[in-house]
UniProtKB/TrEMBL annotation:
Coiled coil: none annotated. Keywords: Acetylation, Cytoplasm, Nucleus, Phosphoprotein, Ubl conjugation pathway. The lineage of its organism: Eukaryota, Metazoa, Chordata, Craniata, Vertebrata. GO terms for biological process: heart development. It comes from Tinamus guttatus (White-throated tinamou). May be involved in calcium-dependent ubiquitination and subsequent proteasomal degradation of target proteins. Probably serves as a molecular bridge in ubiquitin E3 complexes. Participates in the ubiquitin-mediated degradation of beta-catenin (CTNNB1). This is Calcyclin-binding protein. The keyword Nucleus applies. It is found in: Cytoplasm; Nucleus. GO terms for molecular function: S100 protein binding; tubulin binding; ubiquitin protein ligase binding. One of its GO terms (cellular component) is nucleus. Its main location: cytoplasm.
Length: 216
């Protein structure tokens, strides 16, 4: 979530023309970068290991980080797990459906790990899909039913991208800017809301004085 906020602030910075608004956004950008830098790994969160007590023994941790790539025939998802190559092959299980897959890694350093992908962008072949175990990495290979390029992994990601594009693609650039400001205000904390409010009020006050340039 913090990474998405940072990307939106950077996008907003490219459109901001007033110095005060630019300064506010630059401050927020630095704040977000610091938060991301100091954020602990997901598995270290207090509640991550206590989400559910696994019947398999140990705790179950949800995997949130991954990388992906594609070829003409496969979607490839890379999951990093230290020492996974030392496990028996049967401890790494992947179940495929036409539009999803579930990964379960059992008893890795006393914990179990899961990852679920639902609503894949396009259908995959269950029979042609598989997983490979490499050093500190699991490679999940989803065989495409049709050899075509995927723009993203899931239908949800596609819809999200389309909404963001619609927000940016407006005939009036200020409309896209206002849309982002409203989103930042709605999702920001109290300090962020006060900062945006202050910048907005001061900007309007200056605009109301006809003797000042619009870009100040």
């Amino acid at each position: 979530q913090l990474q998405k906020d940072l990307e939106e602030v950077k996008e907003l910075l490219t459109k901001a023309t007033r110095k005060r608004l630019h300064d506010v956004l630059t401050t927020e950008k630095h704040k977000l970068e610091l938060e991301i830098k100091n954020q602990p790994p997901p598995k270290l969160k207090a509640d991550a290991g206590e989400e559910e007590k696994s019947s398999l023994g140990g705790y179950t941790v949800k995997i949130n980080n991954y990388g992906w790539d594609q070829s003409d025939k496969f979607i490839k998802i890379y999951i990093s797990l230290n020492g996974v190559q030392k496990l028996p092959a049967e401890n790494v299980q992947v179940n495929f459906t036409e539009r999803s897959f579930d990964l379960l890694v059992k008893n890795l350093n006393g914990k179990n790990y899961t990852m679920t992908f639902n609503n894949l962008l396009k259908p995959i072949s269950m029979e042609g899909s598989s997983r490979k175990i490499k050093t500190d990495t699991i490679l999940v290979m989803c065989r495409k039913k049709r050899e075509e390029k995927w723009d993203c992994l899931t239908q949800v990601e596609k819809e999200s991208k389309e909404k963001e594009k619609a927000a940016y693609d407006t005939s009036d650039p200020s409309e896209g800017l206002m849309s982002l400001l409203k989103k930042m205000y709605a999702e920001g904390d109290d300090e962020m809301k006060r900062t945006i409010n202050k910048a907005w009020v001061e900007s309007r006050e200056k605009q109301s004085k006809g003797d000042l340039p619009m870009d100040l």
